[in-house]
Amino acid sequence: MNASTFIRTLHQRVQHLHATVSADFAPLDAALLNFKPGPDSWSILECLEHLNRYSRYYNAQLAQALAQPVAAPPAEFKFSWLGRKSIETVRPENRKLQKTLARMNPNQSRLDQAVLAEFLAHQTELLALLDCARQANLGRKAVSVEFFKLLKLSIGDTLEFVVAHQERHIQQAGRVHQQLRPELA
């Protein structure tokens, strides 16, 4: 696939996530943001905190990988086998529940609206990283997988994984938002 088109599409998807969270979740008070449809379900803030925990790791890893100079970035990008498998597990269309690592599971955390502000800040940072990625070799394996650091994903695989994972959990938060009683939302 064309690398420029890939980055442009990711940029648009991240802008959409930022706009969705700003429009749909930012106006809600802390009680609504912490509403849980069930004891094992996540609230809107828990969904965002889960993403924040991943962003703290992957944004830093991507910044480090993108800081490496590239003479001439390839015009084409192709997902690796590991990248495709990783991305498939987090795509929003994949309705199979995934087991979350304990350190990444925010269930029963005490959260406030600072989580929302942090999420939006991470999105702004990711947009800047995507701008840097326009000049990168997206196929270079440079980002260690969070839960097994010996494995490395390419920069492009990682960017797609991060955005797809965010879309998955923003959709989850949207489903929680839909379950708020109309008189509360």
UniProtKB/TrEMBL annotation:
SUPFAM superfamilies per the UniProt record, alphabetical: DinB/YfiT-like putative metalloenzymes
Coiled coil segments of this chain: none
A Pfam family matched in the record: DinB_2
Gene3D superfamilies in the record: dinb family like domain
Signal peptide coordinates: none
InterPro entries: DinB-like, DinB/YfiT-like
Domain DinB-like: 25-173
Stated name of the protein: DinB family protein
Species classification: Bacteria, Pseudomonadati, Bacteroidota, Cytophagia, Cytophagales
